[in-house]
Amino acid sequence: MTAGHSGGSEESEQRLQESNFTGDLVSDLKLLQKCCERHSDTRIRELHIGHTDVRAAIVFIEGLSNNSEIQNNIIRPLMSNFAERYEGDASYAEGTVSGSFLINNVLSVSEWAAQSRVQEVMTAVLAGSTALLIAGSKEALILGTTKGKARSLEEPVSEAVVRGARIGFTELLSDNIAILRQQGKCDELCIERFVVGKRVKKDLVIAYMEEIANPQLVEEVKRRIAGIDMDMVHESGYVEQLIEDSYLSPFPQLQSTERPDRVMAALVEGRVGILLDGTPFALIAPVTFSMLLQSPEDYAERWISGTLFRLLRLLAALNSLLVPALYISFISFHPGLIPTKLAMSILGTREGVPFSSLVEALIMEVSIEILREAGLRLPKPIGPAMGIVGGLVIGEAAVQAGIVSPILVIVVAVTAISSFAIPQYNAGITLRMLRFIAMFCSAVLGLYGVVLFFLLLCSHMVKLKSFGVPYASPASSIRISDWKDFFIRAPIPFMKSRPKLLHTKNTKRKG
């Protein structure tokens, strides 16, 4: 009995989803009410159109729809007397009023669509639109009355702005598109919309420059987005993981950012931007590892200082990745490579330490990572203070207790500070994870293990691709022109060409 009842219920629900409006207002409202049985916040308002006998009803969700817009732009115009206008409508002679007549002459709404399927109308209502049903019409009007709730425009939280526009994306997709267009007047900026999520649907757009971006790149991005098959795409990080080339790689293969100027700069280079409703983080594809070490301030400042900062970040990335591993290899396997006085000083500070260099390094590194994670989860006024004080207290206590040596505290501090110098947070996480692998390699094979680890890492980066673009480029290519924006930041007058690795339609920067 239970199975039969369940099967009948599923069949009934399937028929309801596939049903169309009949034109009989009473029957059509019953169909919608069946769809709304589990949505107690649905509101239905019946009325007569323009002092006539033609009945109509509006359906909306309380809280999602803009009540003042419904009152002023839909209900009030519909109930006003516009007899001198509707008498000329051909459908009025048949006892109804056409939706096109109301849209063109009565209603004050900018977004609308006609839909005959009950399920499609209910989906639009649940997204914040208002449905207008008219007696005698087999189509319902979907009117755009969504009430957007977004925070005010603020400076990006995850990316510090030293020089540039102090404005970041918000959680509202329409606002983000407007912010992107406000970067400058451009007729070539294309915005294409998709819907992702099978059960909970969200809007997603891709942005690119029509006269610059490689058409094959744009089509590949579209193909991967169209292939997303999930109940709900919660955040742009889900999109990133679903469309990246290799989910086994530790490296991020799309760049995430809150900064509109970074996205626009990437679009002008020939890349593609991806924006998802409900998140302030946009994605840029394709990406190379060198992009993750660059900052928009590199181009706002003069080329000499921009080059210096870029080289410092590269050094910081190497420090974050290899310094603890080099410490372990020198102490455990190659003390002869250390200058004699320094070696004697280090050995003196390690006297009485009961652990091997690997174990004491792991103790400090894991402690620092736990402190860093705890600082992120604590309230903002407490988090930074706890991270600094906790690090100092634990480091000093560990040295006093003879658990670790003072030189290791310096090594761990340099490593932690270096990881903060990387502009992209997810790139910093990657280097922090790989640091532990490098430490184990050095503990087994010494300096040879560090070199072997670095070679394997470079080999993986050379093989890795992001939407067909080599991840290690331009280091892995022979295009010398692309090196003007790699280790150094050449003067802007010398950077006349777009990156050749992107195969853009227009290779020259105008002007």
From TrEMBL:
It comes from the Bacteria. Signal peptide: none annotated. InterPro entries: Spore_Ger (IPR004995), UPF0353/GerABKA_families (IPR050768). Keywords: Membrane, Transmembrane, Transmembrane helix. The chain crosses the membrane at residues 314-333, 392-422, 434-457. Belongs to the GerABKA family. PANTHER family: LEUCINE ZIPPER PROTEIN 4, SPORE GERMINATION PROTEIN. This is Spore germination protein. It comes from Paenibacillus plantiphilus.
